[in-house]
## 1
Amino acid sequence: MELKRTPFYSLIKEIGGKFVPFAGWEMPIKFTSDVEEHKWVRSEAGVFDVSHMGEITIKGKDALKQVNYLITNDASILKDGEILYTPMMNHNGGTVDDLLVYRVSEESFFLVVNASNIDKDYQWMVDNNIYDTTIENVSDFYAQLAVQGPKAEIITQQLFNENLSEIKFFNFKYLNFNGESILISRTGYTGEDGFEIYLSPKIAVEFWRELFSKGESLGLKPIGLAARDTLRLEKKMALYGHELSDTISPLEASLSWCVKMGKSEFVGKNYLLKQKESLSRKLVGIELVDKGVPRHQNEITLEDGTEIGFVTSGTMSPSLQKPIALALINSEYAKIGTEIWLKNNQKLKKGKVIKTPFL
Amino acid sequence: MAQVFDGYGYTKEHEWVKVEDGFAFIGITDYAQGELGEVVFAEFLKSEGDKIEKGDEFASLESTKSTSQVFSPVSGEVVAFNSKVEDDYEIINSDPFGDGWLIKIKLSDPSQIGQLMGATEYNDFLDTL
C-alpha cells in the first residue's frame, strides 16, 4: 500500500526531516538527534507534525449519550469547549483505542483518535451507534500540529490576537488564522505545556511558515516522532499498541482515573466491574539496574526465569539518562521496590519496580 | 551524504571490515550510524576468545527508539572488543570508521574478505536505497 503524506511532507523533507513509515503514513522520525530534540522540548519548545492523527465527529440530539456509551470516562462533566482523555473499550475487556473527546456542544463532539486505528474506530462507533447519531470520519479535512514545551504559549501567541493564556489545560477554542477557522486546544503528548492545532490542509503550510517566522527566534524547532515517544514515555502516557490494546483493559493500564463506574451503561462496564474485584496484572514502571535498554515485548521474569509479564515500552530516558520501561506484570509483583529480571539481548538483567511517572 | 572510504570491505547490512596484519577490525558504516541515530547503549554479545561464524550476531547498538543487531561479516576468533565504545557510545556516531570500531577478529578464512563489497560497489549500493 502506498504511504500517505501529510501537507507538511515537502516542507519537512526540505529542512532535513528523516522519514519512516508509521501507521500507513510517511512521518518524520527525527531532524537532527532524537535525544537533543527530546531535551529541547523539555526546556524550550518544539513543533510536531501529527497530521496522521484521526478525527471523527459524532453529532445529533443524543450525541452526548452516544459518546458516553462508547467511552469509559464521563463526557457529561464537560462544558462546551472542554476536552477529556478516555479509553474506548470492546465487549471483551480490551481497548479499541484511547482518544480525546472535544465537546463542541451537547449535540456535537469532535473525537481525536490514533492514526493506526482510524478505520477500526470509525467502524466500531458506527456498529455501536445505539442512539442513531451522525458519525463521520473527517480525518482528511484536518492537518494537525502540536506545539509543545515551556515556551509553547509565548511562541503560539505570536500568531493570534486572542489571549492564549485564557485557554486552560484541556480546553479549546476556534480561532481565526488568515481568514480560516482553526481549532486550538491546550493538550499534548509530551507532559509539557502546549497546544494541539487542527487546521485545514489548505492553510497548513502557511501556518507552519508563519509559526517559524515568528517563533524560531524564540526557540522553536521541528521535532520528530522518536522524541515524541520518549517524551510521552517519561510521563507514563499510554501508547496504543503498547500499554493499551485489544487485549489490555484500561484498569490494567493504570487508567482507572478515566473509568467512571458510576455512570449508566457503557461498553465494557460489566467486564470492568468483575475485573475490578481482582486485577491480575498491572502496569508498572521499571528501572533497569543492569546495563541495557528495555524493549517492547522483552519478558519480565523472576530470578529463576519464571515469566511474570512483559515490557510494553522501554527506552534510555533522555532526561534521566537511565534505562526505563513500562511493563504489564502479575499484580503480586507490582509493589514499588520489587526486584524483577528482564530478558534482553539474550541475557537476564536485573531491574526494579519504581514510582511513575518517571519524570 | 554518508561517507565511504577505500580500504574497507562492506556488507549490505552496512558493516565494514578492515584487515591489518591478519586481524579483521569490524564496525558499522557512516550510513548505518546515521540511520540508527544517537547510540545510547552498546552491548557485546560475545566474549574474547569465542569462535565467531560469518553471520553471527556479536553486538547490539541501541538508540532511544530502536535496537540494531550487528553481524560478523567474517569467521574467526574474537581477539578484542573496543572498550572505548563502552565508555563513550557517541564515538560510534562521530567516528564510525575509526575510534568507533567494535570488534577485532583473528580470521579463520581470509578468503571471506574477497566476498565483501569495495568502496565503489558499496557507494552504488547506497544509491539504490
Note: Chain A has three domains: 9-51+142-234, 54-137, 280-354.
## 2
Amino acid sequence: MSSCIVYAKVVEMKDTAETKTERQKWMSLLAKAPSGRISTLLDGFMDRPDFTWLRPPEIGSVMVQGRAGATGSPFNLGEMTVTRCALKLTSGTVGHAYIQGRRKTDAEAAAIVDALMQTDAANNVSEQVLQPLQDEMTKTRTKRAGKAAATKVDFFTMVRGED
Amino acid sequence: MYVAVKGGERAIENAHTWLAEERRGDTSVAELSIEQIREQLSLAVNRVMAEGSLYDPDLAALAIKQSRGDLIEAIFLIRAYRTTLPRFGSSNPVNTAEMACDRRISATFKDVPGGQLLGPTFDYTHRLLDFKLAAEGETAEAPNRDTDATAIPHVIDFLNAEGLIEEAPHDDTTPPDLTREPLEMPADRPLRLQALTRGDEGFVLSMAYSTQRGYARNHAFVGELRIGSVAVEMDIPELGFAIEIGEITLTECETVNQFKGSKSEPPQFTRGYGLVFGQTERKAISMALVDRALRWEELGEDNVGAPAQDAEFVLYHADNIQATGFLEHIKLPHYVDFQSELELVRKLRREAMADNVAEAAE
C-alpha cells in the first residue's frame, strides 16, 4: 500500500531532525519537570553550590506559534507563561533556565542543575537528578499513552456469505 | 460622550464587598481551591486559556474562581493580566505531527495508520445525568493497553499520494500579531487563524454552523481531530540554540472539503484548519469550518454574500472581550449624553406640536 512508503518517509525525516546536543536535551527535560521535583532530587543528594545572579528569576510570556494546515505558514496561537533566570557559580560556570509557568524556585533549581552539568559534578547530577526525572516523565507519558491505546477502536467486519 | 461621575465611592466599595461575600456563597459549604478548579473543571479552564490567549492552567483556574464561573469575565481577567507580562520572544511553530495523542480520530478514513483513538470523550455517552456524581464516589482506573507510544503522523500525509488533497506548503514568514498591531483588513490567513483561535467559542460555533446550514456551504468532513500534548521549542538568543521550554495540550482539527475546482485549481479536496489551546474540540472543529469559509477568495470561489465569508464581519465580532466591553459600557452612567438627547426630543416635540396647531388653525 502506498501509505507505507509515505510512512517510511515521515519517520526518516523525523530521525534526521533529531540532532540535539546534550545540553539542549537536559535543559528541555528540566523545563518540563513537574513543580518542585528538581529541588527535591537536587537537595536529596547534595548541598547547593554558591552562586550569584546574572538574571534573577523573571516571569514573562512566550508567543506560541502554530502552522496553518499543520505544515504551512506560521501563525500566532497565543502566549504561555514562562520563567527564566541565569546564574553564575563561584567557579564561573553559568547556568540558564527557561521553564514553563510562573515558577521562580523551580527556575532557580533548573539553572543550578544546568550549571552543575557543565562541571565535574555532571555525572553525579545526571545520575541523581536527570535520570530519575527522565524515568518519571517517561513513566507518566507511557501510562497516558496506554490509556489512549485502550480507547483504540478495533474494527471488525461481519463476514458475508457470498465471499 | 462619557463623563466621569463622582460620588459613588461608598456604594462601589460596599458593592464589591458584597460581591466577595456572594462569590464565597454559603460558608458552611467547603471553599473551592484553585487546584480543584484546575483538575475538575478542566474544560472551563481550557476555554479560558484559549480565549484569554494565555496558556497557564493555574491562572485560568484563579480567574474562574474570581469571576464566580463567568467565563467571559475570567477571560477578561486573563487578557488584562497578559498585558502586564514582558514578552521573552516567540516559539518555533509547534510540530503537531509529534503530538502525544490522548485522542485521534478521523471521520473520513477508517483504517488510518495509528488507528482511531477515542480518548476521554463525551461522544457515545447517553447524556443522561449521572446522579452517582452527586454522591462522593471513587472513579475506576482507566484501562491500559501496551503501546510503543510513538508519534502518530497526520492522516492527510498518508492520503495525499494521489494529490487529491490540497497541500499546505512550508514557509517561514513571520506572522502578523494582532496583540501588537490592530487587526486590519484585508487579513491574511495567519492573522485570521490567530483571531479565530482566541475568538468566542459560541460565536465561532454559530458561524461554522451557518456554513453547514447552507450559508457558503463547503461540506466539511473531519479528516482528522487530535488532542494531546506537544513540546514548545524556542530559540534562546543568549544561548544560541533552541530548547524545549514546556509542553502544552492542544486540539487540532483538519477538515477535508469538497471543491469543484476553479480557474487556477483542478478539482480536489481543500482543507480548513483549527488549532486551539487545551482540550477544546468543539472550538477547533468550528475554527476549521470558518477558516475554510474565509478562504473563498484565495481558492477562487464565489462570494455568495454569506456571513461566514465576510472576514471583516467574522473577525471584528469574534472577540468576546471587545464585544462585551462595548456592549456592557452602555450600562455605565451616560447622564450627560442622555440629558442632551432629552433636550433634543423635547425640542422636536415642541416643534411638531406647534406645526400641528398651525395646521389646525389653517
Note: Confidence is low (pLDDT under 50) at residues 1-17 of chain A.
